DNA sequence: CTGAAAGCGCTTACAG
DNA sequence: CTGAAAGCGCTTACAG
């Protein structure tokens, strides 16, 4: 039988049926008064029984619990929050409208928290600081237990100051304050994974076709690339688009001299452009040139021909961790401030196979 | 000067400074008690002044308001909600994990509601009915004023029954209950827009390369296509992928007989595959074959070569409308149940230019 | 025109 | 082992 929430007011229980008509009279939610009346105890006892606090006979506690279950009692979170100062609610502020980065983070947060009865307010703020302010105020009015600030760049802050707020704040995939708790991906480690895969696949001449130099993640990934390869590095900066991937291939192939046999791309969009351009030139991937991307953005990575080997920043895990931390902080547990780098992983598809199984 | 929220407790105001140390003593939030004390009125008067209710001298009202502003008073939404039975909170239930459809809906909802002080709980439930139940219970515990159910298909319900819930429910881009309020896109009208664009561009033989027949939206769009073209229709069903777009072109071109000069695609992914395949065959778009997609999914539509003319379902507008309706219902205003179809629009890029400007 | 009192639905010392 | 009372921060009849 599925759980019997909310059966209406005339429950076949051992006592107190006549009281039901009185107390259940004011239609609407079932309150603790009803539970207490039906169980034949005071509301303080009922409260303690349900919360596992106070001392009472096991029989009483059990009876109250059973009655609560039967009448479908669910405590009013507003009333409870007013007293306990915990609303079981956190706010998620994000400026990633397209959601490519925030969405998995969001899923992770919610996944982590829902089991603890914590709900998540979604506040999409683009880059509008007025709107951000409105959202933050609304969250504070509602007594959120904490705030997670999330974004799409590690080197940009959201357009609102969240320090000194009286509620814990966790920064997830966005720039935080120096004394705040910040979660980010370890892009250097991710880039090393990518470049090693190319090296293992036998590439001797690897170039990095990537995004604008102004992005910290671009610089970090490029640095890791330089430190990992043998021989002279070559980094081509452009924009985050397929078109730039095309153009980079044109540049590399149309000039004289050495051509690469491995390309480490700044993200999956660029990688897609690169792979399309190579195919159009009759260059085989991965036989002639191996390609690795960054982001593991399914819709891109799975649809390239051949499917793309790429770095996954594990943003869902990052979200879970953010949820875990904000919960801990809201419960008063001590959390070390600082930046925590979470490891990336490599998803191997066909554009670079790394070490083939040895014979 | 930017707004001066929260100045601390020693405000240069005309009266009551000595009271501040008493009342402001219990550090933390500024409550209405502080406002009342500083303004020299009772808390009931303070409340009425701030809410614009009750009768009092304009001077008193103004003074209270000014003081509230100065001390940075913001009413505790929990306490207020407990009494008024309005939490200024709504829940958004969605099973669209990838977010392509839900994200714009979400943005629209939030955009519409934030100005009314209403925050949105995000509940991502995949297709797990247990988890859906947990989320719904959590929302009810928190006394949401309403629920918006959103999805990625018009012909599938979310895996949870939302009828008989005691809070208003609006279904947005998902199948609702017969007596509920449902918002959806007008796919037939959208498809007519697409097909007319092809006709206007001079196409004589238009085919519909689309998704699985099991999708209602596929059938509706195909029906509109059949009703709009002259001559015999041809509908090719496949899956929602670029690969299917490729394959469909292969089928159409490798068989003998008539080849189309216009292709109406079931979505933008298929359209992208179609355009790539045509280019690889040396067929020019739009000169030889014009192509129109469906969804206006930026990342696809803007990156195809040439950029894709496609139908936009205006999901953000749909979201705003959903927000508007759930708000109205939560305020007790009457809303007609039934299905509301919101118009699509055509975004003209280069793959089909419709009527060129007359000479 | 203004304030004292009751109460929203709970929890938590404090008595007994 | 159990309950009466106070109170969280507000709003809303009801008196004056």
List the defining traits of the structure above:
homodimer; 359 residues; alpha/beta; 434 Repressor (Amino-terminal Domain); Rossmann fold; 3 domains; 6-stranded parallel sheet; 6-stranded mixed sheet; 13 helices; elongated; disordered N terminus; DNA-binding
What would you say this structure looks like, in words?
Two copies of one chain form a homodimer. The first copy, chain A, starts with 16 loop residues before the first helix and ends in a 12-residue tail after the last strand. In chain A, 40% of the residues lie in helices and 15% in strands. In chain A, helix 2 packs across helix 3 (43-51), helix 2 crosses helix 4 and helix 6 (102-114) crosses helix 13 (315-330). The first copy, chain A, folds into three domains: 17-75, lambda repressor-like DNA-binding domains (434 Repressor (Amino-terminal Domain), Orthogonal Bundle), CATH 1.10.260.40; 83-184 and 315-343, Rossmann fold, CATH 3.40.50; 187-313, 3-Layer(aba) Sandwich (Rossmann fold). With 359 residues, the first copy, chain A, is α/β, with parallel strands linked by helices. Chain A is built from 13 helices and twelve strands. In chain A, strands 2-1-3-4-5-11 form a six-stranded parallel beta sheet, sandwiched between helices. In chain A, strands 7-6-8-9-10-12 form a six-stranded mixed beta sheet, sandwiched between helices. Chain A has helices at 17-23, 32-39, 43-51, 58-71, 77-84, 102-114, 129-141, 187-200, 216-228, 242-254, 268-280, 298-301, 315-330; strands at residues 89-94, 119-124, 146-150, 169-172, 181-185, 206-210, 235-237, 262-265, 290-294, 309-312, 338-342, 345-347. At the A-B interface, helix 5, strand 1, helix 6, strand 2 and helix 7 of A face helix 5, strand 1, helix 6, strand 2 and helix 7 of B. Chain A binds a DNA duplex (16 and 16 nucleotides) through helix 3 and helix 5.
């Amino acid at each position: 039988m599925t759980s019997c929430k909310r059966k209406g007011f005339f429950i076949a229980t051992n006592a107190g049926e006549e009281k039901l008509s009185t107390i259940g009279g004011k239609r609407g939610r079932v309150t603790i008064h009803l539970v207490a009346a039906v169980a034949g105890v005071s509301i303080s006892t009922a409260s303690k029984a349900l919360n596992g606090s106070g001392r009472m006979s096991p029989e009483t506690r059990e009876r109250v619990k059973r009655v609560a279950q039967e009448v479908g009692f669910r405590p009013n979170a507003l009333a409870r929050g007013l007293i306990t100062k915990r609303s079981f609610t956190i706010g998620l502020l994000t400026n990633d409208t397209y959601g490519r980065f925030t969405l998995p983070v969001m899923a992770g947060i919610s996944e982590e928290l829902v089991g603890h009865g914590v709900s998540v307010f979604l506040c999409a703020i683009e880059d509008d600081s007025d709107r951000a302010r409105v959202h933050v105020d609304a969250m504070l009015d509602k007594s959120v237990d904490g705030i997670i600030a999330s974004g799409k760049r590690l080197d940009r802050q959201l357009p609102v100051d969240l320090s000194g707020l009286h509620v814990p704040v966790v920064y997830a995939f966005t720039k935080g304050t120096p004394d705040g708790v910040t979660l980010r991906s370890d892009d250097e480690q991710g880039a090393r994974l990518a470049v090693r895969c190319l090296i293992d696949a036998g590439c001797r001449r690897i170039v990095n076709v990537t995004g604008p130099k102004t992005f910290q993640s671009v610089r970090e990934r490029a640095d890791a690339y330089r430190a990992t390869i043998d021989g002279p590095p070559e980094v081509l900066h452009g924009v985050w688009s397929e078109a730039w991937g095309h153009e980079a291939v044109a540049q590399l192939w149309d000039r004289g001299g050495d051509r690469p046999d491995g390309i480490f791309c700044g993200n999956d969009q660029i990688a897609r452009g690169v792979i399309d351009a190579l195919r159009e030139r009759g260059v085989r991937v991965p036989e002639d040139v191996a390609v690795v991307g960054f982001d593991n953005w399914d819709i891109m990575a799975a649809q390239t021909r051949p499917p793309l080997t790429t770095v996954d920043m594990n943003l869902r895990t990052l979200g879970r961790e953010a949820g875990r931390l904000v919960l801990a902080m809201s419960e008063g547990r001590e959390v070390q401030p600082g930046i925590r780098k979470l490891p990336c992983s490599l998803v191997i598809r066909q554009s670079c196979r790394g070490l083939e199984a040895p014979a």
